[in-house]
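SEVERITY: medium
COMPONENT: batch folding queue
REPORTER: lab tech (J.R.)

DESCRIPTION
The queue accepted two submissions in a row. Attaching both inputs and their returned structure tokens so the on-call engineer can compare them side by side.

ATTACHMENT 1
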Amino acid sequence: MPCSPQEVGSLFLFEELSPEQIGRLCSEGRIERFEPGPVYTEGEPATCFYVMIEGTVVLSRRVGGDDVEVNRTSQRGVYSGSMQAYLGDRVQQRYVNSMRVTEPTRFFVLPADRFASFMREWFPMAVHLLEGLFFGAKSTQRAIGQRERLLALGSLSAGLTHELNNPAAAAVRATATLRERVGKMRHKLRVISAGSFSPEALANLIDIQERTAERVAKAPSLSPLEASDREDVLTDWLDDHEIPEGWQIAPTFVQAGLDTDWLDQVAAAVDEDILPSAIGWLNYTVETELLLDEIEDSTTRISHLVGAAKQYSQLDRAPYQVADVHELLDSTLLMLSGKIGSRIKVVKEYDREVPRIPAYPAELNQVWTNLIDNAVHAINGTGGEGTLTVRTALDNDRLLVEFRDTGPGIPKDVRGRIFDPFFTTKPVGEGTGLGLDISWRIVVNKHHGTLQVESEPGDTRFQVLLPLAAAESDTAPEEPA
């Protein structure tokens, strides 16, 4: 369609240009009429700059499998398209949204290379300022994002050190006590072997020792009241059989799952005169087994924590892989257990039937970390007691991961800004305002999913929806956002 300098010059974007400049625009650009339908699609190479002359445009962004409308307008002069063409090859020039028209619409269309040329020629100072703002914002966001990750890493390291210290200290204490008990067992064995015991009696003692060790491994878990009642019964039995310090031995036997029926079998298997020595020897056997169990539990806990740390950091694993979201959630909860503390109850409502999904696991762990950290901060703001519920479920063709806390909720006046970069409701020094922004970019940009929030006092829910299948663009994963 013919380009009218008068019509183009009346658009607010060009109204300050000279007649010569308007003429050049018309000579380099064109007027184009579009019927209802798409004009360009998000992700395509950005080849043109569009200024609407008349009609109605709708701009949308791809979120998960849906096109989400972000703007609809009939205002004359609105523009879209290759708005950052002036940056040239330093930035990949692709449309950042999709544009369609709902009625016959006319645009002034300028090729991206000509738009960039006019910007640099007519507004050199503005171009330098825009470049500085663009790259400066990117650099600042990258630097603060790195600081956010380092702060999270420092917090996790402190929590992991605390979690590792407890089982390590328990293992050290148990080892020292075990050394002492083994020494006493050797002494007791020396006393028994020096006595006038028949080979049959010694064989019976050894057999009883073996069966006692097996019984310790199968000891039931008792409530404090049940344990106290059994200790009283065992103490009475030991006193009746004139076993010295029976009140000290009884708790150990109860912990090992021994009862009076078992002690009756011991008494029937050995002579009465060696029963006290046999009971003492069995006491050392039980203590040794219990200490070995404690050492095994402690070292298993350490191994589990190290495994969780590797799972969390995804060391030695491909950046993009098919992952079990429950493994990722569990490793993150374990890594953050020190920060969560004992006053916050963690409830897991996992749907174990949900499938594994293609994902960047290390980056999803960062999302879980940010959302859990925010939930803990919210609960702590109400006195430090509350419930954090982590739920997974299928939501049509997507996987839902929901974090629900019983904090005070997010005020309505700031709810629309929480995903904005550098926006935070935390006190100065406690947050960078990038946690939710980073999470949003990881979920939406990297995983083609959705991150949304529902909030009211006592019930705030951050919901992450992830596709069950990989998008075509994920066959050659890009660098992390």
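ATTACHMENT 2
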Amino acid sequence: MKKITIAIDGFSSTGKSTLAKQIAKQLGYIYVDTGAMYRAVTYFAMQHNYISENHFDVKSLIKDLPKVALQFHFNEEVGFAEMYLNDENVEIAIRTIEVSRLVSKIAEISEVRAKLVEQQQEMGQHKGIVMDGRDIGTVVFPNADLKLFMTASPETKAQRRFEELLEKG
């Protein structure tokens, strides 16, 4: 059976990741959580004191981007691929409120976006991949075999975010 590239785009809290995981599991494809990649770079920046609530050393982060190695490793126990930063499982660490508060600042840096887009495109070269995130269908995989764009009402998005935060305690 011919494998394809599936790109799921859309706004925050519309269910992109939930749907992407379900599709990947059903098809036996690799699921790539691009948001986790940005979160991992944010975590790296926090570890090296490049970013905090009131400080951001963009130049040092850019200089150290070659030291950021990101990989996904499938974990059979949880049923999905987890994020690794420089060979360390950071799946739990990158899902904290502290990382969430800073990730948008990291995503604004064009050098970070360029590095991650390049890595995402490499991951998709062999097809059999489901990738979700903003700009996946336009920037990362403009020629994806299947593109989905997800939307949701403000109420639905707020409810999804609320339930996610409750789950995290």
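NOTES FROM REPORTER
Helices lie at 16-27, 34-47, 58-64, 97-107, 110-123, 136-140, 154-167.
No errors were logged for either attachment.
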